[in-house]
Design a protein that fits this description.
Largest sheet: 5 strands, parallel
Helix content: 55-70%
Order of helices and strands: EHEHEHEHEHHHHHHHH
Number of helices: 12
Number of domains: 2
CATH superfamily of the largest domain: Response regulator
Shape: elongated
Structural class: alpha/beta
CATH topology of the largest domain: Rossmann fold
Strand content: 5-15%
Radius of gyration: 21 Å
Number of strands: 5
Length: about 250
């Protein structure tokens, strides 16, 4: 079940949102931006619904902060507002909001917006995991995400022959704590850092199989597997076919 962060300084609105969404999602509630930021630092959040008009840091400023922070910028944000002007709508989209809903709104409209945003993210994650040649940056939803994923991918590939890539060292390379790296990677890809490393190994292996220059056992060693049987099992798990079947499925010139 996905987790949604609801932000509104009106407790009645939070109660209303909790009633219409509570049966379908895990919910975290925040009465202001400061509380919301504390939750973001501790939890894996899949989507944010925030009011715009709040004291202190308002919804627009919070949206801008989140979308410029590498730790959270992948999280889709729906902004709620009572302003009924074209300029306010544009302003919401300019700070990076993924959707903008005017109050009062129907519960069905909000639910559909949430479902569509989460479903689109899920499809992209599944496509990346199951497609041998899909680049990790397909999961990027912003330039900040793209830079993060490119740097992460390069480190893994540079150390691909090492069967035991150290997650703490990887986190240090990304200028994050181990916990923050886990939360970021899990949220953006639905994979743990270890699983992402495994998929990167297998995608590189798929490329080597297509080149047809090495035996399967050599390829497994080149991408950091000490056991060919584990390599074959993992390849089958993610790509739904064995390395040999994959080679036979490739088009011939």
């Amino acid at each position: 079940m996905e987790t949604i962060l609801l932000i509104d300084d009106n407790s009645d609105m939070l109660d209303f949102l909790s009633v219409i969404l509570g049966d379908y999602y895990n919910l975290h509630l925040a009465l202001n931006a400061e509380v919301a930021q504390n939750i973001l630092d501790k939890e894996i959040i899949h989507l944010i619904v925030s009011d715009i008009m709040m004291p202190g840091i308002d919804g627009l400023e919070l949206c801008k902060l989140i979308k410029s922070n590498v730790e959270y910028c992948h999280i889709p944000i729906i902004l709620l507002t009572s302003k009924n002007t074209y300029s306010s709508h544009i302003e919401g989209l300019e700070v990076g909001a993924d959707a903008y809903i005017q109050k009062p709104f129907s519960s069905e409209l909000l639910q559909v917006q949430i479902t569509n945003l989460l479903k689109n993210r899920s499809k992209i994650k599944e496509h990346f995991s199951s497609s041998p040649f899909e680049d990790v940056r397909v999961m990027a939803h912003s330039k900040t995400d793209e830079v993060f994923l490119k740097k992460l991918d390069k480190y893994i590939k540079d150390n691909i022959k090492n069967p035991n890539i150290d997650i703490d060292t990887l986190a240090e390379h990304m200028f994050m704590s181990r916990t923050t790296l886990y939360r970021k990677v899990k949220s953006i890809s639905s994979l743990s850092p270890k699983e992402l490393i495994d998929i990167t190994r297998l995608k590189m292996a798929a490329g080597l199989i297509a080149e047809n220059e090495y035996a399967i056992y050599e390829i497994s060693q080149k991408v950091g597997y000490s056991s060919q049987s584990i390599f074959t099992r993992n390849f089958q798990k993610y790509f739904k076919m064995s390395p040999t079947q994959y080679y036979k499925s490739l088009p011939r010139a």
